[in-house]
Amino acid sequence: MNTARAWLRVLGFAFFWFGIISPCHAQTSPKANAVISLGTQGQIRVDELASHWVEDGTTATIVDAHKHAESGGFTAAGPREPILLLRERVLWLRLDIRRSPSTPELYLITANPGLDLIELHWQNASGAWQFQRSGDYTPIASWLQHARKPLFRLPSANSDNADELQTIYVRIRHDLIPILVPLYLADEPSLRYESSLTYFILGGYFGLVALTLVFCAVRAIKRRDAVYASYFLLTLSMLLIQVCFTGIGSQWLWPNQPWWANISSYVVVSWYSAFGVLFCLKFTQFDRLAPKHHSAGMALVTAGFVLSAIHIMRPDRLMFIVSNIYMGLSILAVMLILLSAHMRGARNALWCLFGISPIIVGAIAPLARNFGLIGTNFWTQYSLVIGAAIEVTALFVILLKRDSEMREATVRVQALASVDPLSGASDARVFLSRLHDSLLRCAQFGHRCALVRAEITNHGWFKTEHGGEAADRVIVLAAAALRHVARDVDTVGRMGTDEFVLLIEGPTDAPTVIKSATRILARSLAPSDALPIGSTIQLHLGVAMLPNAKDAEPKSAQETLDWLRAQHAAAPRTGRSRVATVNI
């Protein structure tokens, strides 16, 4: 239940984040009109209110487009299907906006930071055509409005008329994939609010990812852990995907490299696919489980970087298709690696598959769009980014689970050096060390401690009559009886096959020790489902107060234990469980 709630929180955050940074979820479009007026709204969607024309070619000028619109060549305003422009088609949009001198400054913005080319054309007061240009084909440093996505400041009204009608044209080019370009008309306060909120959320998100990267780098270097190293690379590539898709990279990291801004999203996705395969290989230790298949997986990882290099040198549609095929193959390889590792007994392989599943689901929509199977919508644009963010978070939680299991295993291994693996009691070395320290404290502070020696008198009978498993259960139950009485400061030690000793730290007195021994005896005599029907454990207890008042000189810990064994062995025995006091 807690895991499900955690996933719901992650999903809710992801949808909230992308809902804000993608304005298409922030505003509701008004009904289609021939004339657009902002009115009292701070921001409205206007692309579906624009008439449009898809030019078969790239040679038409703004004068040609204006004549074509005036002659009725533009399609009337209304919802449109995604348009595949490729390299020889251009989308023209015409907007008629009602302006007045009192109208505040208006801005035209798009929700898609990755457009190849977008231009705004309008006529000035003298009738001459002017334009602004943005998009990946143009260095962002030369944009008139420096922003993470195309943004245009509309010209002011040309006259003092109260209801001037201003006509603008938007020219769009975008290669490779079909597009829907949400356009918004916004005033300056609305734009500032949206921008501030977006950068606030992105800053917090990127900060968390940066902390994760630092944590993984420290783990990878300190532990020389290849799993954390591969996860570091996977998270870094995911961060680059977010930087590219949100436009932060073009705005701040490579504002003067339009060639890289145009192809970076596709290249980084190939890196992410390759690192995803690498992470799964390292996480499952696939080189041990299936060496031949591991070599094939590493070849697929290498192919991803080779294809990325070719894509950088040859950024055409063919390499775009090849990159999409590679992403699909990588997802298939990840699933096969994790399922195969699970069938071969790899721990947490299914958990890893569960963590990878968001990116598998998120990649379906954009891959289907890129191959022309479905149209463009919000999910085809952002599902991969959302899936990557959720996946990296889920994998981080799974890595922490893996660390917890490794720590538990390490603690168990370390405990074997000082704890009896069957009973959980301290071994003889540790017990004698604590007894030595306790005797020193008694001598220093003048108080007394106590020892309770427990001998299982019918251990041999259990082994003979019921086998070794039943005899081992007797050992476990006897140790549990002593630990039930022991306090946090006391120590239970297994000193032989059927011998336990309880060190009761001082200060204590004889009545308290006798009471503890009686409780041990009663606990051992209680019926247990772990023992054969009708049988109980028979303990013979020897109790001694330390230091012994009759000793002329202090004894060592080993001498004290040997003395207790000799006194206990000399105590009368009836063949039944009882408590023998040595020096009380």
Describe the protein:
- The chain is an alpha+beta fold.
- The strands form 3 sheets. A 5-stranded antiparallel sheet has the order 2-3-8-5-6, covered by helices on one side. It has a 5-stranded mixed sheet with strand order 11-12-10-13-14, sandwiched between helices. A 4-stranded antiparallel sheet has the order 1-9-4-7.
Radius of gyration, taken over Cα atoms and rounded to an integer in Å: 38 Å
Shape: elongated
Number of strands: 14
Structural class determined from secondary elements: alpha+beta
Which helices and strands, and how do they pair?
Layout: H1 2-21, E1 43-45, E2 51-56, H2 62-70, E3 89-99, E4 106-110, E5 117-123, E6 129-134, E7 151-153, E8 164-173, E9 183-187, H3 188-223, H4 226-246, H5 248-253, H6 258-283, H7 286-289, H8 291-313, H9 317-343, H10 349-370, H11 378-415, H12 428-445, E10 449-456, H13 459-466, H14 468-485, E11 491-496, E12 499-504, H15 510-525, E13 539-546, H16 557-570, E14 578-581
Parallel strand pairs: 13-14
Antiparallel strand pairs: 1-9, 2-3, 3-8, 4-7, 4-9, 5-6, 5-8, 10-12, 10-13, 11-12
Helix pairs in contact: 1-11, 3-4, 4-6, 4-11, 6-8, 6-9, 8-9, 9-10, 10-11, 13-14, 14-15
Jot down its keywords.
alpha+beta, 16 helices, 14 strands, 52% helix, 15% strand
Q: Can you describe this structure in just a few lines?
A:
By secondary structure, the protein is an alpha+beta fold.
